Amino acid sequence: MLSRLICRVVPFAASLLVSMNGVAAESASPPSPDVSLDVYAKPARLVDIGGRKLNLRCAGHGSPTVMLEAGATSDSITWYKLQPLVAKFATVCAYDRAGFGFSDEGPMPRDLDAEAGDLHALIHAAAMKTPLLLVGHSRGTNIARRYADKYAADLSALVLLDPPGQHLQEFSPAFAKQETEERIAGIAAMKKCETGAEKGQLENPPAELSRCLRGPNPEYTATLNEAQHAIKLRPAFWHTLISVFETNSLYDEQVSPKENHGALPLLVLTPDSAFTDVPPQMRKAFEDEREKTQKLILATSSRSERILVAHSSHDVQFDQPDAVVDAVRKAAKLAGDSAKKK
């Protein structure tokens, strides 16, 4: 299963390669390809948000309406386990952010304000029922919180899946420096892939570009692998990817002392095994960093709660989707109770 997308102990370029095909194989002998995932081999509903389109995937019916915000450079396929479960009791939608999946490229830079603005435009262009419940994973929790800052009236609750630590400099200055250096090196590597995509070289890449894309994912059918491969050939994908890393340190969007979500129900899910891929000598710094960040996030709402998730990596939506379902149900109930009091 996916490790943390930007795992700080893995060289940046190598971690990027892990992300290229979305869901990685869980074992050396994976099961036969899952044909049901072929729905992700083509767009669902392309919604015009003002001269460009974002790919929106919705399922289920009724209330509440739940919107899923993926982490880092992931797209809607990251919710393949969770979305069908939530669809059993709610309307639930996932989407591809601009430049990823089947969505058109968006204006640069792709910072948190740009992502939150696109999501706002999408929700209203698609005539989704608001206020809705917003679920974010990893960097998606930063986007969700920025959305709550800017468009609070649209939201009934927030569910945040393992918000990443954002104070590494405080707990490990040396490793923070190393991470910055690896990020810069990774961006340089991505720019070479970007140039290759613009020249149409990635389909049959020269040796120096051979690591831009991974091979087929054994959990995917040929149809889905071909679709995923085609997405990564687009210059738009590389433009967007580079902008995300240039304009966001990904885990350094520190919690502002001015951030305040009032009485908005806010649940934070914290997995117990998020740092198994971190060397033991560094693990405490990462744990302390995440602990501080998540406590600050919880303090932004008077109706916040932390939920500890056992037997889960950072990717809670893969490892323990039922725990996320329970959190969504709880957040919806809290939101409903708030609405009744008004």
How would you describe what is shown here?
By secondary structure, this protein is an alpha/beta fold. Helix content is 40%, strand content 13%. Helix 6 (173-198) runs antiparallel to helix 8. The longest helix has 26 residues, at 173-198. The chain is globular, with a radius of gyration of 19 Å.
Strand order of the largest sheet: 1-2-4-3-5-6-7-8
Strand pairing plus helix content: what structural class? alpha/beta
Overall form: globular
Helix content: 40-55%
**Oligomeric state, counting identical vs distinct chains:** single chain
Let me know the average pLDDT: 89
Helix/strand order, N-terminal first: HEEEHEHEHEHHHHEHEHH
Low-confidence segments, given as residue ranges, are 1-28
Radius of gyration: 19 Å
Count the beta strands.
Answer: 8
Describe the sheet with the most strands.
8 strands, mixed
How far do the termini sit from each other? 43 Å
Estimated share of beta-strand residues: 5-15%
**Alpha plus pi helix count:** 11
Quick rundown:
By secondary structure, this protein is an alpha/beta fold. Helices cover 40% and strands 13% of the residues. The chain has helices at residues 12-19, 82-86, 112-125, 139-150, 168-171, 173-198, 222-233, 235-247, 280-298, 316-319, 321-341, and strands at 45-48, 53-59, 65-69, 91-95, 132-137, 155-161, 266-271, 304-309.
